[in-house]
Amino acid sequence: MVVSALFVMAFKVPSAQQPVAQQSTPQRTPQFENEDVAVWKTVVPPKLPLAMHTHQHPRVIIPLANGTMRIAYEDGSSETHVFETGKAYWLSSAEGKKRHADVNISDKPIEVMVVELKKAE
What is the pLDDT of residue 21? Predict the structure, then answer.
């Protein structure tokens, strides 16, 4: 009996190695906000297009995980942004004001910290 229990335990996959269910909706978690800035963490699941939207203020994006986003503009044009972990990226208010939808075209979720500059134009 003890031998069979040890045999089962030896071949059981530990829970840390169990596959994790893939997130199906983007997550936006506020980190800090005052009159000058808003900071949040965003996790975008793979292959999930976000709804068309705009941004009123410039932002700095700091990826926490590598990934590639396709930005599809309302006029039919698009561009691709390759994010490298730990590198900062500037997104101007002019760029953000163009109506667009983002799609994570990577195979894994993209995680970024976003710092929005509320008073910048």
Answer: 52
